Amino acid sequence: MKRRESNPLPGSTAMLVLALLKGEEMYGYQIIGELERRSEEVFRLKEGTLYPLLHSMEKEGLVSAREGQSPTGRPRRYYRITGEGLKVLEEKAEEWRFYAHAVSAVLGWG
Amino acid sequence: MNRNYWLDAATREIRFGPDRRRVRQELEDHILDRIEAAKDRGLSDHEAEEAAVKAMGDPGPVARELGRLHRPWLGYLWRASQVLLVVLALCIAANWTYFRNFWNSGPDWAPPEPPPDSPYVWRDLSLGEAGGYRFTAPLVFWQQWDDGTWSGDVILQGESLRFWEKWNPNESILEVRDSRGISYYNRTCAGGSSAEGIPQFYYNPAQSSYTSVTTEIWLDYVPDPQEIQWLELTIGDETLTISLEGGGAA
Known about the structure:
The structure holds two protein chains of two kinds. Chain A is of the alpha+beta class. Chain A has four helices and three strands; from the N terminus they run αβααββα. In chain A, strands 1-3-2 form a three-stranded antiparallel β-sheet. In chain A, strand 2 and strand 3 (75-81) form a beta hairpin. In chain A, helix 1 (12-23) crosses helix 4 (83-106). Chain A is globular, with a radius of gyration of 15 Å. Chain B has seven helices and ten strands. Chain B has helices at 3-11, 17-40, 45-56, 59-69, 72-94, 96-103, 169-172, and strands at 121-130, 133-144, 150-159, 173-178, 185-186, 200-203, 207-208, 212-220, 230-235, 238-243. In chain B, strands 1, 2, 3, 5, 6, 7 and 8 form a seven-stranded mixed β-sheet that branches. A three-stranded antiparallel β-sheet of chain B has the order 4-9-10. In chain B, helix 2 (17-40) packs across helix 3. The N and C termini of chain B lie far apart (97 Å).
């Protein structure tokens, strides 16, 4: 499949980021890398847009952040999912399953 | 576009300095990681930086979103509250003696002991309210001296939950009268000098805590105290009556 520069599924980037953070604590650059790797490079963000997304999720209490350090000693901000974030992820994933099921049914894949 | 240009553009709408620097640092960390990765693939320093900045995308929408998320007034409010706290702490430190005295003042004071053989002792009399304080007299007694003269002691305690106010008995007890109409001469007002022979009173400086004030009123040259049915203290505009009927119990 062709690489996409923008998010083909509006509103789903937050869900994908939450899903990545469910496993472990991550920093921004790592999130971008994991997103590309796990989606086999289908999802590629304009990387700068990840940060407003992370900061707004932090503000909403879906993720929390801590100041840490990179192995080379640079200050680095690590994000982890909160209980509220897990709840929202669960809801979004459920909506998505429902939607995917409906699309599959219409396309006659079911 | 070099990375500093991109970083400045992406963070320019964050008004609060400390927030802006923190976000800029986070974005720069990302770009530096991206540059390292590009160089590992064999790109030159310049090419790597170009590629990294390009991958970040247009700084305009990022700046708008970040500006919206990092509202300045919250930051300023936080900073202002910090400054205020420091100023307050400095004020308290600078006036520490005053603050300590405000809540807990007066010399170390122990209530007097009535003479063991005196029949004229009253304890824990409730006096009612005056000036927002609830007054009690934990101890009142008469005492006769070797020369036959009598003196009296009234421990007066005022309590109020309004700890921010302070009743100062040294300024407001103006008058002491007894049931026979005798008005006691205020020796405290007269600078503490003794007036031999005439009924008089003075009081020790009060001891106070957050919510209570205690003062000791000492009456001297009290004629025939056993005939006194009540004492009246005028505090400011209000009057407290200390009922001494029925004699005291030792």
